[in-house]
Amino acid sequence: MSIMHLYHTGLEKINHPDIHYGRKNADFGQGFYLSDNEEFSKRWARERSGLTTYINFYELDTEGLDIKRFSRDEEWFDYIYCNRAGYPDKLIGYDVITGPIANDTLYDTWGITTSGLLKREQAIQLLLIGPLYMQTVIKSEKAAAQLKFISAEALTSEEIATYREIVAKEEDEFQTLFSEKLAAVSQENNISDNDAF
Question: What are the two backbone dihedrals, phi and then psi, of residue 127, each rounded to the nearest 5 degrees?
């Protein structure tokens, strides 16, 4: 038996995740999104008045599941791009999809990457920058049945503030990298366009 340890942070204990709750135009389509990195999951904790913020702990038994594993490459980019554009999910038959998070969803880059304003090659270059974090998406009822809720831990306001500071610092660094790369690919675009005349 092969077990994946997974985490999900939110404003409730989620004993029975709903795979149909998430947006269809998310990077890996509709499903229940988790991380294999506990610390990373805690970074995205939010507070809301009168509610408790939890990190939920799970174990996924991968036995018999059809799992698609992505790395940062063109196939990954094409899947993200099609899902964001609202095309039918090309991998709807998989039970689980795991692969890199597109960092422009973590850090505010105004939707530039998949806006259609950039050439495909430029958009790919932008999605390849920044730290590499992974996500795992439960896509099928079969996989959801094999996702075992272990426990949930309440996060304190102090913990949440500490993790939000980490995100803010990392986002500043990412924005700098993103701006530099965007300027570079824009310059390349201008040069190639000029060369065409």
Answer: -75, -15
In the numeric block, which tokens belong to residue 44?
């995205």
110 with 102: CB under 8 angstroms?
A: no
State residue 177 phi and psi, 5-degree precision: -60, -45
In angstroms, the CA 94 to CA 66 distance is: 5
DSSP H or E stretch at residue 27: none
The model carries a pTM of 0.89
Q: How far apart are CA 49 and CA 56, in angstroms?
A: 20
Q: What angle do CA 128, 129, 134 make, to 5 degrees?
A: 70
Give the whole-angstrom CA distance, residue 34 versus residue 73. 21
What pLDDT tens digit does each residue of the chain (197 aa) get? 699 999 999 999 999 999 998 788 899 999 999 999 999 999 989 999 999 999 999 999 999 999 999 999 999 999 998 998 899 999 999 999 999 999 888 888 867 887 777 888 888 888 889 999 999 999 999 999 999 999 999 999 999 999 999 999 999 999 999 999 888 887 776 644 443 32
